[in-house]
Design brief:
This protein has 8 helices and 5 strands; from the N terminus they run E-H-E-H-H-E-H-H-E-H-H-E-H. It is α/β, with parallel strands linked by helices. Bound molecules: thymidine-5'-diphosphate.
């Protein structure tokens, strides 16, 4: 019934928020899920990220993972009237793959949108955790993974592209300052989700187009 997504650059704190939302909203019985990695295709996605062999193949694997995630998790849960909260979703592709496909595909954003067009489900609410790239890099620097996305030039552009998506669809996004204490971020995010949840129960219709 309600699809909420959490977005942000690597190191923005979105996974911490996502994990905390489950217990905090347990009375709403949310389905807590994520991209990539909620389906068997997630393993192929991880391999593509590790090997960095082909940006087009990598992008299409992220899309394939999204398709399977929709079919196996998101659509059945929404059909049951559940609240779904996904750590990353379509916007991650619209921003990260816009960077990785630059110079490889003409107009990556249009291509990415058309590849999703007609079958995806747009989120009702997207919580975007905004942190300066320097802060994010300081946080991810402590991690072992060191994925190729976690570099300053990439994250700087990803951040700008997120902000462009916000400009295009202000009603969908809630931007939160990811440098605030996690419990503060949790309180505001949970409050916003509760509000949208109660509004939808009153009968607001949902969007389906990309
Ligand atoms: P994720 O597992 O969410 O990592 P993190 O917790 O560090 O955010 O995602 C792994 C990487 O994949 C992350 O750097 C963002 C990237 N990504 C894309 O490039 N495109 C996508 O469509 C998705 C879902 C993730």
């Amino acid at each position: 019934m309600l699809l909420v997504t959490i977005e942000g650059i690597d190191g923005s704190g979105k996974t911490t928020l996502h994990k905390a939302l489950g217990p905090c909203l347990s009375d709403l019985d949310p389905v807590i899920t994520c991209e990539p990695g909620s389906t068997w295709i997630g393993e192929a996605v991880r391999r593509a990220i590790r090997e960095q062999s082909d940006p087009i193949a990598e992008a299409l694997l992220f899309v394939a993972d999204h398709a399977a995630h929709l079919r196996e998790v998101v659509k059945p849960a929404l059909a049951e009237g559940r609240l779904v909260i996904s750590d990353r979703y379509i916007d991650s592709r619209l921003v990260y793959q816009q960077v990785t496909l630059d110079g490889i595909i003409l107009d990556p954003l249009s291509w990415l949108r058309s590849v999703h067009n007609g079958w995806t489900i747009m989120p009702d609410l997207t919580i975007l955790l905004a942190v300066p790239v320097s802060v994010a890099l300081e946080r991810t620097g402590r991690r072992e993974s060191g994925e190729h996305f976690e570099q300053e030039p990439v994250l700087t552009r990803v951040y700008e592209y997120y902000m462009q998506l916000v400009e295009e669809d202000k009603a969908r996004f809630l931007i939160l300052d990811g440098t605030l204490p996690p419990e503060h971020i949790l309180k505001v995010a949970a409050g916003a989700i509760r509000y949208r949840h109660s509004e939808l129960k009153k009968g607001r219709s949902r969007k389906v187009s990309v």
